[in-house]
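Lab notebook: predicted structure, single chain.

Context: the supervisor wants predicted structures on file for every construct in the current expression panel, including those that have not yet been purified. This is the next one on the list. No modifications to the sequence; it matches the entry in the shared construct table.
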Amino acid sequence: MTLQEIYQQFLNDISNTTWLEYVAVIAGIASVWFSRLENIWVYPVGLINTVFYIYLSIKGHLYGEASVNFYYTVMSIYGWILWARKDRQHKLVLTVTRSTKQEWMQHVSFFAVFYIIIFFALQWLKKSFAPGAIPWADAFASATAYTGMWLMAKKKVESWYWWLATNIASVPLYFVKHYVFTSVYYIILFVMAIAGLIEWMKKAREAAARSYAPAE
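Prediction complete. Output recorded below exactly as produced.
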């Protein structure tokens, strides 16, 4: 596909963007903004995004992404509960932290298991119901997103690395399915994920410094 063809497809598809996709994108951007600030509104706002994208993904034969957004919906409720928990002093129990090497191995294993499951499920769907599916790309975008959402619920800095991978994979994936506004959305999310990573690294350093500070 030439640059001219890409540009023409962009113009054609952007004119056909539905209000549902616009609302989903705006809610998604707002949700990532709240997550960068470690604000609990990330979850109620994010639920608008995920529910709408379940429908849009199924419509576009992106079944892996549909499963991701269903997973997002469930994990948003789970994360909402975790982020809201407070101790007896009414302080939030969960703080931003970095992962240990052992936890990193768990993250990679988590990703690998979901990638394999989603890939083979999509291979079957491609033969039987969805010839437009792209198993390897959809499985990668989906498995990285599964991992990122799981780690975000636990307030792990490394969640942003997985979000960066998801965003990179999702740009061409949605473009070829004619959701070009969503492709632009993932470019925006990629930039916001970099900002989120920097912000959470700072928060993790501050939390570590407080934990090692001598009691007065």
